[in-house]
Backbone:
């Protein structure tokens, strides 16, 4: 019970202090909206909004989740308020799960902003929503873990932002959002198969547009494997870097 | 009864040995001071004791619990006030305290009651709904201390509690520390301010370059440090003309003349003042002030660090 109280209050504090701040709310709305408009303007001919939706959802989660978690933890470490959490009689895992939960919720909410827009212009009746939710959760989970991995390594907020971009932009261009994976040159195609976002986007494509490269179960399995690997790396680095 | 026992504790950062096999114990209900210059190993030691850092060697037992293996058990019974005010700037005082209480698993009604009590106790009730970032330095320090005791810990670790705050707030904090001691709390305090340690601590350990060089009660340390007696005299006439004569007449004393009207007498035995006054009077010089110079912890500290430096040379 004591652990549950601590977990809930860390989560509530993060949502209140960081995620519900006006700049983040506006980021969650403006970012997907501007990407949608950009795609519509630059695409030759008539591009269907439904074609853009999986990519926009994946991108909204990736950008929101990784940067928020990396920046907030680095910020708390810098101001030493993070020591307060490390000194609490709760396990590091509880602390990490509470931090991850905030980022995952933020990422999932961000993902449905483009859906809310798209619902006004496209027919989403063919969408298989349970799978969308699973895919959104798994993308948010892997992105949050990536953000955590960055947060564990970064000492300064600017470092966290730099590292985030280092991971995010290659993922963005190689996961099939802008260029179909089949059209990527050999080496880039190989890299794209090493990125969790590739499988998340593919699952979303399957659930929303009904076309995907891989089988859904395979995508989910790979995403879970990425999550386990990232969690292991985070846990190992936390033990090394947070308790010196 | 001892509540903290540290044995042969070591901390190495790469090539640097920050803490070099220190051992000490802290008794239940006492205020234990940990003093030393910057970089002496104070914060490294405290961080290992509270679980923010892993020892490279040695043992820490707090209230019978192995603090290296069962760090989370120890963290339940300790409160920590770090050297920086690390509360959340965007949250108000009341929210900050409630949040800290929640980290210890306290239920809503209980934590709100305790937060209100502490805000009252620390004279912060009027500022309870103000964001922490809008607090003055003294208020921030007090709230950080309040957060350290929100869960009513048995042992409180205070790292530089009065650094960077005004005289009045520092005085209030010293009173709070003594108040906590009266409640039976054990307090482990690190400070740069030797005078502050002298006022609040029962026992003190001096750490220099990762090693404890002296440990004892304040009075023991003072007695050890300055063996002898010092007396300062202010006189009406000039001592310059009789300086040699004075030194010959009182050979048992070491005499220092800071100016022509001042004399500092140092002696192994208590100084018999009357013969000095009488002799000076016979030379036409009146003594208008005589003051015993008592040693301070600062003298002890300077002596210890100087001795340590000599040994290393």
Residues:
């Amino acid at each position: 019970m004591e652990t549950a109280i601590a977990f809930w209050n860390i989560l509530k504090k993060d949502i209140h202090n960081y995620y519900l701040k006006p700049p983040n709310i506006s980021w969650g709305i403006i970012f997907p909206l501007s990407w949608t408009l950009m795609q519509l303007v630059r695409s030759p001919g008539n591009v269907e909004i439904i074609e853009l939706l999986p990519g926009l959802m994946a991108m909204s989660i990736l950008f929101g989740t990784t940067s928020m978690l990396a920046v907030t933890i680095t910020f708390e470490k810098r101001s030493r308020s993070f020591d307060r959490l490390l000194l609490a009689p709760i396990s590091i895992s509880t602390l990490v799960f509470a931090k991850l939960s905030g980022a995952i919720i933020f990422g999932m909410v961000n993902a449905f902003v483009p859906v809310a827009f798209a619902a006004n212009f496209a027919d989403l009746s063919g969408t298989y929503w349970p799978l969308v939710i699973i895919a959104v959760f798994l993308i948010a989970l892997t992105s949050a873990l990536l953000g955590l991995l960055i947060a564990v390594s970064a000492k300064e907020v600017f470092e966290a932002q730099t590292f985030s971009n280092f991971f995010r932009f290659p993922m963005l261009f190689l996961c099939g959002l802008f260029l179909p994976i089949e059209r990527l040159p050999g080496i880039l195609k190989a890299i794209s198969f090493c990125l969790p976002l590739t499988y998340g986007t593919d699952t979303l494509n399957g659930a929303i547009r009904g076309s995907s490269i891989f089988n859904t179960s395979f995508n989910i399995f790979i995403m879970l494997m990425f999550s386990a690997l990232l969690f292991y790396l985070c846990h190992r680095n936390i033990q090394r870097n947070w308790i010196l | 009864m001892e509540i903290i026992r540290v044995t042969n504790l070591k901390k190495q950062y790469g090539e640097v040995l920050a803490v070099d096999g220190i051992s000490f114990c802290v008794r239940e209900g006492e205020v234990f001071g940990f003093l030393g210059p910057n970089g002496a190993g104070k914060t490294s030691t405290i961080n290992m004791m509270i679980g923010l850092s892993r020892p490279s060697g040695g043992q820490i037992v707090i209230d019978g619990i192995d603090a290296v293996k069962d760090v989370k058990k120890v963290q339940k019974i300790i409160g920590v006030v770090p050297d920086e005010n690390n509360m959340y700037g965007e949250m108000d005082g009341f929210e900050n305290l409630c949040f800290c209480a929640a980290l210890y698993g306290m239920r809503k009604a209980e934590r709100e009651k305790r937060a209100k009590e502490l805000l009252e106790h620390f004279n912060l009730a009027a500022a309870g709904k103000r964001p922490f970032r809008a607090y003055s330095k003294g208020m921030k320090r007090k709230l950080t201390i309040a957060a350290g005791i929100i869960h009513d810990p048995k042992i409180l670790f205070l790292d530089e509690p009065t650094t960077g705050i005004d005289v009045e707030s520092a005085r209030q904090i010293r009173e709070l520390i003594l108040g906590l001691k009266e409640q039976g709390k054990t307090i482990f305090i690190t400070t740069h301010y030797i005078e502050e340690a002298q006022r609040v601590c029962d026992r003190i350990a001096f750490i220099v370059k990762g090693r404890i060089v002296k440990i004892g009660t304040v009075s023991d340390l003072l007695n050890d440090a300055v063996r002898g007696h010092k007396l300062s005299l202010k006189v009406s006439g000039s001592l310059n003309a009789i300086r040699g004569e004075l030194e010959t007449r009182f050979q048992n004393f070491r005499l220092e003349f800071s100016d022509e009207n001042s004399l500092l007498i140092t002696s192994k035995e208590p100084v018999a003042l009357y013969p000095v006054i009488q002799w000076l009077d016979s030379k036409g010089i009146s003594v208008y002030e005589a003051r015993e110079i008592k040693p301070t912890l600062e003298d002890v500290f300077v002596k210890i660090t100087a001795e340590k430096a000599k040994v290393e040379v």
Summary: Chain A has ten helices and no strands. The first helix of chain A runs from residue 2 to 19.
